[in-house]
Amino acid sequence: MRTSQNGWPASKDPEEIEIVSKRIPGTGLKLRIARPVAPLLIAFARDFHKEVERINEGQLDDWGYAFRDIRGATTLSNHASGTAIDLNATQHPLGAENTFTDEQARTIRRLCRKYGLRWGGDYRNRKDEMHFEVVMNATQAQNLIRTLGLEKDGDEEAKESNQDSETIRSIVEPDSSSGSDRVLPRHRRRNPKRAI
């Protein structure tokens, strides 16, 4: 089976990779995303809607799964595995920069760290500020879902204590050399002995 850029299984057949349709709490919108990461992506979208900007329900510019290559490349997009979402795309078009305020960008980065995502606004080359993608493997994603108490697909409020924040930072740490987040191998995490 082919994989998307982040290493997750990708397929033209959404059932083959467990694509599900999940509602974003606080909205009437649903996103098609991979079941194993649905709690993370839905909780992120919920918090984006509450803390960054309202997701515009009058536009059809929010989506998840789409079997396609990265624009301008021959590598499968993370949308092809259902592990990426785009929010308010018409307000934050591909290639545009600084479509969010500084405060919004800080909140986006905090939420991305919390949910193990990478923001297209932090890409080094062509910016994609509408875009948010999973940067963990399946085991790391399941561990983070449990740590955040999101076992019910992200429909419940995330519970993050100070200890949870430290655990999350130990899973996903900013990579200052590339300007993006990277997943650290277990032996390089700050707290490798704590089971998560």
Order of helices and strands: EEHEHEEHHEE
Main-sheet strand order equals 3-5-4
For this entry, what is the oligomeric state of its chains?
single chain
Main β-sheet description: 3 strands, antiparallel
- Overall geometry comes to globular
Tell me the Rg in angstroms: 16 Å
Number of domains: 1
Q: What's the mean pLDDT score? A: 83
Query: SS-based structural class?
Result: alpha+beta
Report how far apart the termini are.
29 Å
**Beta-strand share of residues:** 5-15%
Percent helix among the residues?
25-40%
Question: What is the element layout, followed by pairings?
Answer:
Elements: E1 19-23, E2 30-34, H1 38-52, E3 84-86, H2 102-115, E4 117-119, E5 131-134, H3 138-148, H4 162-171, E6 172-175, E7 180-183
Antiparallel strand pairs: 1-2, 3-5, 4-5, 6-7
Helix pairs in contact: 1-2, 3-4
Describe this structure in words.
The strands form 3 sheets. Strands 3-5-4 form a 3-stranded antiparallel β-sheet. A two-stranded antiparallel ribbon has the order 1-2. It has one domain. With 196 residues, the chain is α+β, with helices and mostly antiparallel strands. It contains 4 helices and 7 strands; from the N terminus they run ββαβαββααββ. Helix 1 packs antiparallel against helix 2 and helix 3 packs antiparallel against helix 4 (162-171).
